[in-house]
Design a protein that fits this description.
Blueprint: H1 2-8, E1 16-18, E2 21-25, E3 29-30, E4 38-43, E5 48-55, E6 61-70, E7 74-79, E8 92-106, E9 115-117, E10 125-130, E11 136-140, E12 145-149, E13 164-166, E14 176-178, E15 184-189, E16 192-197, E17 203-208, E18 230-232, E19 237-242, E20 247-252, E21 261-264, E22 270-276, E23 281-286, E24 295-300, E25 305-311, E26 313-316, E27 321-324, E28 328-333, E29 338-343, E30 348-354, E31 359-365, E32 367-368, E33 376-377, E34 380-385, E35 391-396, E36 412-430
Parallel strand pairs: 3-36, 32-33
Antiparallel strand pairs: 1-2, 2-4, 4-7, 5-6, 5-8, 8-36, 9-36, 10-11, 11-12, 12-13, 14-15, 15-16, 16-17, 18-19, 19-20, 20-21, 22-23, 23-24, 24-25, 26-27, 28-29, 29-30, 30-31, 34-35, 35-36
């Protein structure tokens, strides 16, 4: 009874206690003009994954104040009244959400008990993408097909009356990307990224092209060398990594062929999987020639790109382990500066958070097996978080698990709901 009463309270300035964690603001109102800040005192007796995030009156994400597996028993978390990009927030009411016990729960309403595939639906699914309507796109690399499914997992027969685009050969595309509204579908092949109409499935144009002897873009821009991962941001940019040539490049995706070339990276080890924050941050797993050891954050500087920082070791204070991350095959940004990493060997899903100075470990899930409800996989390959941040989709391919284990994966797509064991709110005012 007491727990239900506490869950219904939303009084300014009260202390919320759950799972033995308490969070107390030092005041209920802060003034921008006077240079005030909020300071939240957190009492955390046991190690737990803990996130503290700010949202505006409309429920829109503003900033992450803290997200990590926390071992400190008593600490303070400040908020300087700025958003995730360093901009001053306007006056109004803000909600601070405190969450513990991150969990992934199989969404059994999707497909067949939360799964598409695991039979003869796919040969070797490699990528998964989701648009704002919840439509799901899967690249079956082995079949040379880009599939589209409705949010419930049923075939979406609205691409020229079909739920797929079929390539002229198999395999054909290496990676795909999709506009948020589903109007354009992008697929990498050869020295280009092909652009398809989301309604008809017809190719409209291509981006990039063979660079000839101009490997370093000394004279021209826009060449691509066997692009693999591709990602989109909200400013008409398309990013394409070329691991074999140790670079990746940015394009204005509204322009054709090499006309849209903006910059290409120099240095670093960009790999075959990644994601963007939709703005200027690009998160790329490191390349195969590094054994895919962790990820690197890159910042788009409009005319160039710079490395911010990376991570290839995780310290799990609950399991009391320190491990090097290898075989990172999938990277999924959650919209709130959390990132899910898909590790193939050993099999696991790792959640980390970008604190704008580096990465913090949050939690890890998964083990080898075939029971999706227990977060078991044989050969996970890729993942994506839905635009609303509520679901995580994980692809498992049908290829051999590793060089030393030739057993095939299960060739399936699994959908999980992202949940928390406990979630409470504090309301504060900014003037």
């Amino acid at each position: 009874m007491l727990k239900r009463i506490l869950a219904g309270l939303c009084m300014i300035g009260c202390v919320f206690a759950f799972a033995q964690v308490t969070c107390t603001p030092d005041k209920t109102t802060a003034s921008v003009k006077s240079g005030d800040i909020f300071v939240f005192t957190v009492n955390n007796p046991v190690p737990v994954d803990l996130s503290i995030k700010v949202y505006d009156a409309n429920g829109k994400y503003v900033r992450t104040l803290h997200e990590k597996c926390t071992t400190e028993t008593l600490f303070k978390v400040p908020w300087n009244l700025k958003d995730a990009y360093g901009n001053q927030v306007p006056g109004g009411k803000y909600t601070v959400k405190i969450r513990t016990g991150l969990n992934l729960v199989l969404d059994t309403s999707f497909g067949k008990n939360g799964v598409i595939g695991g039979d003869d639906t796919f040969i070797s699914p490699r990528n998964v993408r989701v648009d704002k309507k919840g439509n799901v796109y899967v690249l079956d690399y082995g079949a040379g097909i880009i599939y589209k499914f409705n949010s419930d997992g049923s075939p979406a027969n609205d691409i020229g009356g079909k739920n797929k685009i079929t390539g002229p050969s198999s395999p054909y595309w290496a990676n795909i990307a999709v506009e948020e509204d589903g109007s354009r579908i992008y697929g990498t092949s050869g020295h280009a990224v092909f652009v398809y109409d989301g309604k008809t499935g017809q190719q409209i144009y291509y981006i990039g092209g063979f660079f000839g002897n101009d490997v370093g873009w000394e004279k021209t821009k826009g060449g691509l060398g066997w692009p693999n991962w591709i990602g989109l941001n909200g400013d008409y940019r398309l990013y394409a990594s070329c691991p074999g040539y140790t670079y990746f490049a940015a394009f204005d995706r509204r322009k054709q062929a090499m006309e849209g070339g903006l910059w290409r990276s120099k240095g670093g080890t960009p790999g075959e999987s990644g994601d963007t924050d939709g703005k200027k941050a690009i998160y790329l797993a490191n390349a195969y020639y590094t054994n895919r050891s962790g990820i690197t954050k890159w910042i788009d500087k409009d005319t160039s790109v710079e490395i911010a920082y990376g991570i290839n070791v995780i310290n799990d204070p609950i399991k009391k382990t320190r491990e090097t991350m290898a075989n990172v095959y999938g990277v999924a940004f959650d919209g709130e500066y959390g990132i899910y990493l898909i590790q193939r060997d050993p099999v696991r899903i790792i959640k980390i958070a970008d604190n704008m100075f580096g990465f913090d470990f949050v939690k890890q899930f998964g083990s080898p097996g075939d029971d999706a409800s227990k977060i078991e996989f044989m050969a996970p390959k890729d993942a994506v978080v839905s635009p609303d941040g509520k679901y995580l989709y994980v692809i498992e391919d049908g290829e051999p698990i590793s060089k030393t284990n030739t057993a095939p994966g299960l060739a399936r797509l699994v959908k999980y709901k992202i949940t928390y064991q406990e979630e409470k709110e504090i309301t504060v005012n900014v003037q």
